[in-house]
Structures are given as structure tokens and as C-alpha cells.
Amino acid sequence: MRTTANLAATAASLALLIGSSVITPSSAQADEQANKLIQEGKEIAFDRKMGNCLACHLIDDGVSPGNIGPPLVAMKARYPNREKLYSQIYDPMVANPGTRMPPFGKHAILSEDQLNKVVDYLYTL
């Protein structure tokens, strides 16, 4: 026979379990949200009026890529520091004054949100 203390502890555990599942998104929801942001980043990178990365870079599933810039592969290995990759896209002239790459952030070609989505996408390559 359960005591009142046992029943109270069980009820408290269930309330905590149910409450935390409502407040905290499931890993499937988190994965879905991350995939959505990555897809948006890809769309920005491939859009000729926005990132237009394919004009200069080879990207795995891009059509008619350019060859002015380096291929965008193994980006996490090449830029283990996410902030450094973000900065490279924001204003590449800081690291390479002679670059042909436009400063997407400095010249407000892309917003901070768009730049972060592009970096999220590039980290999948």
C-alpha cells in the first residue's frame, strides 16, 4: 500500500515530466527548426539577388558554380571558430584586403540574421 508521501512524490514527478515536455521542445522539434534555418541559409547563399555564393564558389549541389573563390567544402574543419567564418563573410577585406568577395555585412547586403543562416548552412558543407 502506498503512503501519502509516495503518492505525492509520484504526482510531483509526473507534473515535472509533463511540464518540462511542454516547456522544452523535443529533439525532433529542435532538429526540424535547425533544418529550417539551414535550408533558409542555403536559399540565401544560392539566391542571385542575395548571397549569390555560386557566382564565385563551387558548392556541392550548386548548379553552374564559379571558380573565382575557393570551393566551399569542409567548412567546419576550415573554420572551427564560427565567429571567424561569420567575420569572413561580414567583411572579408579585414583578413584579405585584395579579395574580390563583397563585404556582405559591412555593406548591408545581408542582415545579421541572414548572415547567421548562411553560416549555419555553410557548416553543413
Low-confidence stretches are none
| CATH topology category name | Cytochrome Bc1 Complex, Chain D, domain 2
CATH class: Mainly Alpha
Helix content: 40-55%
What would you call the shape? globular
CATH superfamily: Cytochrome c-like domain
* Biggest sheet details: none
Q: In whole angstroms, how far apart are the ends?
A: 59 Å
Overall number of structural domains:
1
What is the count of DSSP helices, taking H or I runs of 4+ residues? 5
Mean of residue pLDDT?
87
What order do the helices and strands come in, and which of them pair?
Layout: H1 4-23, H2 27-46, H3 75-78, H4 82-90, H5 112-122
Helix pairs in contact: 2-5
Task: Describe it.
The chain has a single domain, classed as Cytochrome c-like domain (Cytochrome Bc1 Complex, Chain D, domain 2). The mean pLDDT is 87. The longest helix is centred in the N-terminal third of the chain and has 20 residues, at 4-23. The protein starts with a helix and ends with a helix. It is built from five helices and no strands. The protein is globular and about 45 Å long. The chain is mostly helical and 125 residues long.
